[in-house]
């Protein structure tokens, strides 16, 4: 009797048997680049990627020549000339002729676009004009424009826009910006980043729905937004934010940078600006603050807390080596603090045993009310590298935080690779530290 070998069972391609609209829905979860790659699977898939109502392209990383980028996008728009386009995200690099951008934006705004991002990346200002149809697109939800030219219009109507991000664009005047904001009646997230070369006037931001706003130091705004939850800004030498309504954001993310006052060696004017701003936001519940000169707030002649954050429960702060000893004054200003995240600057502390002229990080005898009564979570965001002060900092919180639930510290990758014995010693020292809270977990990453 002759035995016959069974033929291997072929794997059934069930996906290819799905209707076009379902395959299109699957391909929308992929990038444009990956969706196009499916065209080589079989003749069935050759043109299916064109059904996807999304175009996400980078003219430099995904095409050898700029002409190929323009040609590819052109074919996509030709295919969708009678259908909707849900999302268009383009990144292009300083082309001489930007008329194609104007025509493409006009095309998608007339085809019920929901998500539009145009980024012109350039070493110099490189603007492309925005078509008039954009200002009255009634389907847009997310709009992001980078280095484009806004034109004067009499009316702006963007009834569905919730996210509006405008970065380094050219504006004929402040009125067009205010029209974009007032013409977006459901706006929730606003970002305006401008250049120092612009002679920008004060911008009035009035919105009954706005929840988040991000502006840089070159945007001066007066905010009237009763539902505002999060304010993010960069400040150097001037105060650029005024909040006029009775409400206040729950979260403030503020970066004071490293600028010094020109012609003011004592930093008097800068110190006043910083204190004024921190006084204005004293009701905040979550604060993210990047400030490398804490002496501007807590000068040596006034060791006590000069600020009072009565409602603050979550704090993320950056300290440099010379100002870390002022941390107790900041913590004393936060009587209800529950979560503390510390970022320590790169050249922050000194190797154990070395001499220095900076104040020592020794406040183990200082009683800080929030550490004893409310602090539950502490994280050292910057990796431990074996410098003086780091271990003392960890030891203080473990020993004095009576209701602490978690202390998180991170080891430096370099330290782990190059100083194995030192890493082991530090790790053992951390585990041996006494803890005031029996429920405290020490997480070492």
Uncertain regions spanning at least 5 consecutive residues: 300-304, 347-359
Strand fraction: 15-25%
Q: Radius of gyration over alpha carbons?
A: 28 Å
Number of strands: 20
Overall pLDDT metric:
79
Largest beta-sheet characterization: 15 strands, parallel
Work out the helix count: 11
Distance between the termini: 67 Å
Bin the helical content.
10-25%
Q: Which outline best applies? A: globular
- How would you classify the helix and strand content by structural class? alpha/beta
Strand order of the largest sheet: 1-2-3-4-5-6-8-10-12-13-14-15-17-19-20
InterPro entries: F-box-like_dom_sf, F-box_AtFBL13-like, F-box_dom, FBD, FBL13/AtMIF1-like, LRR_dom_sf, LRR_FXL15/At3g58940/PEG3-like
Organism: Camelina sativa (False flax)
Domain F-box: 12-48
Pfam families: F-box, FBD, LRR_At5g56370
Tell me what the structure shows.
- The termini are far apart.
- The chain is globular.
- The protein is of the alpha/beta class and 445 residues long.
- It has a 15-stranded parallel sheet, covered by helices on one side. Strands 7-9-11 form a three-stranded parallel sheet. It has a two-stranded antiparallel ribbon with strand order 16-18.
- It has a domain at 53-187.
- It is built from eleven helices and 20 strands.
């Amino acid at each position: 009797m002759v035995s016959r070998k069974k033929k291997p069972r072929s794997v059934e391609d069930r996906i290819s048997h799905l209707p076009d609209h379902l395959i299109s829905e699957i391909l929308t979860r992929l990038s444009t680049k990956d969706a196009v790659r499916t065209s080589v699977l079989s003749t069935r898939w050759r043109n299916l990627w064109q059904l996807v109502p999304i175009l996400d392209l980078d003219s430099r990383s995904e095409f050898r020549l700029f002409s190929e980028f323009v040609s590819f996008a052109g074919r996509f728009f030709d295919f969708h000339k009678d259908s909707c386009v849900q999302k268009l995200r383009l990144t292009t690099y300083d082309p001489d002729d930007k008329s194609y951008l104007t025509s493409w934006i006009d095309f998608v705004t007339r085809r019920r676009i929901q998500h539009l991002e145009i980024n012109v990346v350039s070493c110099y200002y490189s603007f492309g004009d925005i078509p008039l149809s954009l200002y009255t697109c009634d389907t847009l939800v997310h709009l992001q424009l980078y280095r484009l030219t806004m034109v004067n219009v009499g009316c702006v109507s963007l009834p569905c826009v919730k996210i509006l991000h405008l970065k380094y664009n050219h504006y004929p005047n402040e009125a067009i910006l205010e029209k974009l904001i007032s013409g977006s009646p459901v706006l929730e997230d606003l970002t305006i980043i401008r250049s120092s070369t612009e002679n920008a006037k004060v911008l009035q931001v009035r919105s009954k729905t706005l929840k988040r706003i991000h502006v840089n130091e070159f945007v001066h705004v007066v905010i009237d937004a009763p539902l505002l939850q999060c304010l993010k800004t960069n400040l150097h030498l001037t105060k650029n934010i005024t909040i006029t309504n009775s409400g206040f954001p729950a979260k403030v993310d503020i970066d004071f940078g490293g600028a010094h006052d020109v012609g003011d060696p004592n930093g008097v004017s800068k110190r006043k600006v910083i204190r004024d701003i921190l006084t204005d936001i004293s009701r905040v519940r979550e604060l993210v603050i990047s400030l490398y000169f804490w002496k501007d707030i807590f000068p040596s002649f006034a060791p006590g807390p000069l600020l009072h954050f009565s409602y603050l429960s979550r704090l993320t702060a950056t300290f440099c080596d010379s100002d870390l000893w002022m941390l107790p004054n900041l913590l004393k200003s936060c009587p209800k603090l529950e979560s503390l995240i510390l970022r320590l600057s790169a050249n922050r502390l000194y190797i154990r045993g070395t001499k220095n002229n900076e104040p020592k990080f020794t406040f183990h005898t200082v009683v800080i009310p929030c550490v004893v009564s409310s602090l539950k979570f502490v994280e050292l965001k910057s990796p431990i590298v074996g410098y003086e002060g780091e271990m003392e900092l960890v030891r203080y919180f473990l020993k004095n935080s009576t209701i602490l639930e978690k202390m998180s510290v991170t080891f430096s990758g370099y330290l782990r690779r190059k100083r194995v014995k030192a890493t082991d010693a530090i790790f053992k020292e951390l585990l041996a530290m006494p803890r005031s809270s029996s429920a405290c977990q020490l997480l070492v990453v």
